[in-house]
């Protein structure tokens, strides 16, 4: 009885994975993998305004007197 349950379950999960892959392919999830890899390497602009002052004065900050 167990194998009679597991085989259809595994086939169903495989089909669900295949459907999810084709959905992602159709919706452009894989359209620019090189661009995503390069965006990780681009530095973000420095923080400005109230959030910047709050983060710089945080006691857990490496150097609280230093402004980023």
Automatic annotation (TrEMBL):
UniProt keyword Transmembrane helix, yes or no: yes
Alphabetical keyword list: Membrane, Transmembrane, Transmembrane helix
Region spans: Disordered: 45-68
A Pfam match: FixS
Record's compositionally biased regions (Basic and acidic residues): 49-68
Bilayer-spanning residue ranges: 6-25
Superkingdom of origin organism: Bacteria
UniProt keyword Heme, yes or no: no
InterPro entries xrefs: Cyt_oxidase_maturation_cbb3 (IPR004714)
Annotated protein name in UniProt: Cytochrome oxidase maturation protein, cbb3-type
């Amino acid at each position: 009885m167990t194998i009679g349950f597991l085989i259809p379950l595994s086939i169903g999960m495989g089909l669900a994975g295949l459907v999810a892959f084709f959905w992602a392919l159709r919706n452009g999830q894989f359209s620019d993998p090189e661009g995503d890899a390069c965006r990780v390497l681009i530095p973000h602009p420095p923080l400005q305004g109230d959030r910047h002052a709050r983060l710089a004065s945080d006691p857990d900050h490496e150097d609280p007197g230093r402004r980023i």
